[in-house]
Amino acid sequence: MGKIGKTAGHIVGNIVAIFISLVVLIPLVVLLLNSFKTSAEADKMTLSLPTEWVFENYSIVVEQGKLISSFFNGLLYAAGSVVIIVAVVSLAAFVISRNMKGINRFLYYFIISGIAMPINNVSLMKVMQALHLINTRGGIILLYAAINIPLSLFLAYGFIDTIPREIDEAAVIDGCTPWQLFTQVIAPLLKPIVSTLFVLDFMAIWNDFTMPLYYLNNSQKWPMTLAVYNFFGAFQNSWNLVAADIMLTLLPVLIVFVLGQKYIVGGVSAGAVKG
Predict the structure, then answer these.
(1) pLDDT tens-digit readout, 185-196
(2) CATH code of the region 65-234
(3) Helix, strand, coil in percent for the chain, rounding step 5
(4) Where along the chain do its domains lie?
(5) Each residue of 245-255: pLDDT tens digit?
(6) What Cα–Cα distance (Å) separates residue 232 from each residue in 126, 216, 224, 235?
């Protein structure tokens, strides 16, 4: 009876997983197919194959949607912010995990409280203006880094705290300085969490809409999310072009997600073998 119940549970779990996957994948398939259709055929938004494959939709989108400049803007914002986040969080999480008392404990809980704190855009606008960061690429990168550091620190601390302290002691006995301890011993063990943070933060920043809308007044500095919004306003009756625009916006995120999963799995497997 127990084996039958376990099998039934697996079947139900698989059915639920398939259903959830279809809920996510079907809209993507609809967008992909309609991005190759004519304007009249795409208005129906069906899962049918195009009667005529119109590949020119993508060239029109790239030319008229300013996707090249917005792509590099979005890539700069996401990559720049993620580099800052990973560097700061890795160092901070290591120091705090190895000395979780006094000022370190206070700073940890103070920073991660930002996970639950809502963003006050009025106060933030005043701070950005005072620092002359409004409508600057550097300002938006620092803003994204500050917003995503609390959750990233929480995740990194939980991972680093599981690394045995005996490794630190052995390295110190062998003559490692604190910096050598981190860069040569601890950092190689952080590949799974670094990959996880990279994927999560990159996706969150790339897909964000509100921060560039509030703090970037120059359309030449807009990322792809705002470029899609602007393109939709101009071509809202051409669903084939809108679908092509959205697909091009999703492509970098899918690539980062797939590559990130590869490195996460590879890092976990390597850690298991070493252990």
Answers:
(1) 999 999 889 988
(2) 1.10.3720.10
(3) 80, 0, 20
(4) 3-59, 65-234
(5) 888 888 888 88
(6) 31, 19, 12, 5
